[in-house]
Task: inverse folding
């Protein structure tokens, strides 16, 4: 891979910036991480610093991110062999699937994932889980019973 491909930020596939909300606990963890990074270098704690940049504040290559993730997953597998192994892409998939299982509106999931259309989201995540199918059947039955 040419290093120029990953040393600058690029636009999303849809060509628009994406802002997503995160919960207070996640923000607290990120703030703590920023404080720890500031102990390495004040530049790493600036507002425009990359959250997961390298020790010089530069972007990490996609291969470096995947490699670091794999090393951590290997360590985790040794320490906790019953935990399932998850890829970075798997985190995205799990996030979307759990939101849909929790009853989040597909439009919200689409926007969080950055898909240009809800059709894309539904085509990828249309494999609704048995839990979702049973819950839908139970809600429908309860609605009819209460009518």
Result:
């Amino acid at each position: 891979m040419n290093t120029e491909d990953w040393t600058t930020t690029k636009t999303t596939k849809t060509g628009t910036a994406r802002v997503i909300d995160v919960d207070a606990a996640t923000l607290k963890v990120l703030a703590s991480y920023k404080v720890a990074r500031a102990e390495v270098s004040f530049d790493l704690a600036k507002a425009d610093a990359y959250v997961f940049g390298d020790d010089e504040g530069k972007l990490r290559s996609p291969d470096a991110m995947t490699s670091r993730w794999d090393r951590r997953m290997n360590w985790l597998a040794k320490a906790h062999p019953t935990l399932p192994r998850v890829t970075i892409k798997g985190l995205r998939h799990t996030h979307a699937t759990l939101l849909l299982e929790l009853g989040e509106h597909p439009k919200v999931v689409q926007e969080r994932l950055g898909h240009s259309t809800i059709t894309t989201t539904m085509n990828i995540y249309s494999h609704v889980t048995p839990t979702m199918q049973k819950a839908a059947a139970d809600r429908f039955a309860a609605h009819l019973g209460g009518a």
In short: Residues 107 and 118 are 6 Å apart (CA to CA). The helical segments are 24-40, 62-79, 88-101, 106-113, 118-124, 130-146. The chain has six helices and no strands. Residues 62-79 form the longest helix (18 residues).
